Amino acid sequence: MMKIKGERAEKWGFSGLGALTKNKTHLNFMVIFSLIALTGYVVGVHGTITGYHHVYNVTREIPWGLLIAAYIFCVVTSTGLCLVSSIGHVFGYEPYMPIAKRAVFLSIIFMLGGFTVIFFDIENPHRMAIYNVISPNITSNMWWMGTLYGLYLLALGVEYFFLLEQSHALSRISGLFGVLFGVAAHSNLGAVFGMLHGREFWYGPYMPIYFIVSAMMSGGAAIILFTCLGWKLDRHILSRRMERAIKAVCQLTIMLIAVIMFFTVWKIISGIVAPEKYIAIMAFISGPYALVFWIFEIGMGMIIPFVLLIRSKGTDYNLMFIASLMMLVGIFFMRYDLVLAGQIVPVYHGLGVEEYLHLNTYMPSFHEIAITIGALCFCSAAFIFGEKILDGHQFQKHAIVPPGGFICPGCGGIHYKKEGETDEDALKRHHRLRKVDREDFL
Amino acid sequence: MTFKHKINLDNLKDEGQDSVTGFERREFLKLGLIITGVFAGGKLLSVASRVDEVFASSRDFVEKYPYKPHYTMVVRQGLCIDCEQCVKACKETNDVPDYGYRTRILQKVTSDAIGRKHEFIPILCNHCNEAPCVRACPTRATYKNKENGIVMMEYEKCIGCKMCMLACPYEARYFNTEKHAIDKCNFCYDTRLSKGMSLTACANACPTGARMFGDLSDPENVAYKMIHQIEKQVWVLRPEAGAKPNVFYMKATRSSPWELRRQAEAR
């Protein structure tokens, strides 16, 4: 651990900028990721100057392409990280508490990554800043999306600040707002698709529900992946508490994969019997998108990680690392499939006209791919930066416990006992957990 | 329960069908249709009919159309010869770039039909009463004109999120790079209607009368008459989207005297 100057730095778990240069390999990775991210964004700016019409492959028929998929991937991961970690530090389930700091930090990072992607997707972002405020349309899901995600990011920021301050009560309250805005914003993102009654494939309440559940699945995978990576970067931060937390997250993730599996199965079965969805579903089952669907979305996104995570028993970190990495890749393609599925069947297909007999096609352009990779590399670089500079997101390791204090087994912070209080009582008081008196109950 | 004036059905005299004129019969049928709400301007009566009755405008709009004037376009599909004069006129009038279109003509081939096998279907913005694009737009850059129901664009408010392009069931919108905004058909409101002309560029240019532009709130208007009749089928595109469109389709007809062969304004 680095030598820390001053009381405040100690409280914040801040390792100082010097921590970045300690391990050259990690520093190189961070620099490479940053450079790729920068390149991606420069390509994006080039696109802004040239005009998106010339550099993006989105068309009148398919107006939303890879960038929207990348945006959804980022914000889904962000919401998932927030929701899964909230089980611990907001709703008070002790085994999940240690993941909070890293999860909320990454949640903010992924949100910012998502915003950079959408910045390059929207043609006139400057107008958005003005007219979202002075000319709002409250019936528009798109307007709510911007507004709710803005509030969500704000709540996350406040939550993270209080987490660093180790102010449990305030971080819980702001965390609760984070969860509320997160659920509202994210289910609303599902409704952006689900409320398009001109697009049969998306229309219905399925989308908002699916978005929330799949967000939690992504969140679980992201927590496992980034915690394992964090351990790889600095093995000293491995701790029993964290191992226990990861095991709990692993179990939850297995369950969520199972839920998404049955969601997908019923989506396919119900789609096959609905004439207006049939064409889109078949394009994924046996048509041009079959490879992406079966290999990436189903294979890498669900089945293989499901088996690997069960086999890992929550303790084999190599298996869990591979499984969660595959999941995130699979989930990315899941979003891509989702965005395209509603658009590949032409709106006039039912009319039987020559122009719209065939499925619409889309292949991402260089600019779109570059911006997407840029955003993902931005998140990766920021992750390494965070791990290094914030000392592996640990709650402060206190060499000397001050008198009257003790290290909380839940969050790892220092708590102070009142007179005559046991450690457990103090933990419950700090985290506002209600005392359960078994004797009374039974 | 007893009736005051009992009708003795057995003693009623059969008047015979001869005494009912065609006009009366037609009026009677119309009455029935008005009561059941079929006259919603464009019930789907086509051969490819659906089980559900589908209305272009709901029953509330039967008595009174919500806008004055309530602009509409009736496309007499069978008359279209795909000459693309309308597309050309639209491009010239509204400064539409080559990569986009506000209106276009689709081609349908029925290979096993006897005789004519090609059908041409002009499409454009349907100026829906329940426009999904208007609901979807985050900044109210696209809106229904309160007077005439035209779905219009306020270009400088458009953030370019393309949500409306997804929401539109008719693919009537495209992104115009020069305007930095979504562009779409506005029934030539800025270029013609607001300058006192009574027809859109496309309807004016149409040499066969396939496109008939009119006002649904005026019972004397040709479009009103075309839609409020039961001899010919009138339908809308994609009624299942529920957007209550204001562009109606019918097969060619020149049988009634009020149906002009074509609309002409500046000729």
What radius of gyration of chain B results from the CA coordinates? 21 Å
What is the oligomeric state here?
heterodimer
SSE ordering of chain A: HHHHHHHHHHHHHHEEHH
In order across it, which strands form the biggest sheet of chain B? Answer: 8-1-10-9
3D structure, described in words:
The complex is a heterodimer of chains A (442) and B (267). Chain A has 442 residues and is mainly alpha-helical. Chain A folds into 2 domains: 23-393, Up-down Bundle (Formate dehydrogenase/DMSO reductase fold), CATH 1.20.1630; 405-433, no CATH class. In chain A, 68% of the residues lie in helices and 1% in strands. A two-stranded antiparallel sheet of chain A has the order 1-2. In chain A, α12 (290-312) runs antiparallel to α13. The termini of chain A are far apart. Chain B is α+β, with helices and mostly antiparallel strands and 267 residues long. Chain B has a single domain (40-250), classed as Alpha-Beta Plaits, CATH 3.30.70. In chain B, 19% of the residues lie in helices and 15% in strands. Chain B is built from 7 helices and 10 strands. Chain B has helices spanning 22-36, 60-63, 85-94, 132-136, 163-167, 201-205, 222-227, and strands at residues 71-76, 104-109, 118-123, 142-144, 151-153, 174-176, 181-183, 211-215, 234-235, 247-250. Residues 31-63 of chain B have low confidence and may be disordered. Chains A and B meet through α6 and α7 of A and β2, α4 and α5 of B.
Q: Gist?
A:
Chain A is mainly alpha-helical. Chain A is 68% helix and 1% strand. Chain A has helices at residues 6-12, 24-50, 52-55, 66-89, 100-121, 125-134, 141-164, 168-194, 206-233, 240-273, 275-285, 290-312, 317-341, 366-389, 423-430, 438-441; strands spanning 405-407, 414-416.
Keywords:
heterodimer; A: 442 residues; mainly alpha; Formate dehydrogenase/DMSO reductase fold; two-stranded antiparallel ribbon; 16 helices; globular; B: 267 residues; alpha+beta; Alpha-Beta Plaits; 4-stranded mixed beta sheet; 7 helices; 10 strands
